[in-house]
Amino acid sequence: MRTIQADRIRFAVAAFALILHAHGADVVSIWGGARGTIILKSDGTVWTWGANFDGKLGIGDTNPVRMTVPVEVHGPGNVSYFNSVKTIMGCEEHNIAVKSDGTVWSWGWNAFGQLGNGTTNDSYTPTQTGLDSVPPLTSVTKLGGRPYFTLAVKSDGTIWAWGMNQYG
Fold it and tell me: Element (H or E) spanning 86, and its range?
């Protein structure tokens, strides 16, 4: 008889096996969730796998719908590959990253503005967050959030938030 716990263990073992077989640099950070996994490698590249709803995998489109092996996240505008990343965070249907210059980048589902790019359009590749903010969002050191909103802590200690604000 299959149980939820046994399925979770099998998934964790399979995910760990995929990580062990990732080529190149070592994995320095990993986030897993209900719909996918995101890893940051020591060379600053980002890899994802799982469901690709609304562009969550960051590979330039929504096909294929599901990836069972890691794929490298494409660069902004689907040019080259995303790099120079120092921090990642995986959310339910979007992903967030901080590049080494302190800028925030996001991709995936954006119905509540959780990508922070001034729209509610989904993004299939990373798009810079907070460009329309005054001042622009830079110097970010930490990330947080949930499915419908995103949080960032700047080096000066201020906390920024964007996305759904139904309950303040």
Answer: strand 85-90
pLDDT tens figures, 105-147: 999 999 999 999 999 999 999 999 998 888 889 999 999 988 8
Q: Catalogue all structural domains in the chain, each as residue range(s) with its CATH number.
A: 4-163 (2.130.10.30)
The predicted model scores a pTM of 0.84
Write the CB contacts of 64 (distance below 8 Å, at least 6 apart in sequence): 52
Q: What gap in Å lies between CA 99 and CA 141, rounded to an integer?
A: 10
Burial of 92: CB neighbours in 10 Å, binned 0-12, 13-18, 19+: middle
What DSSP designation does 26 have?
P
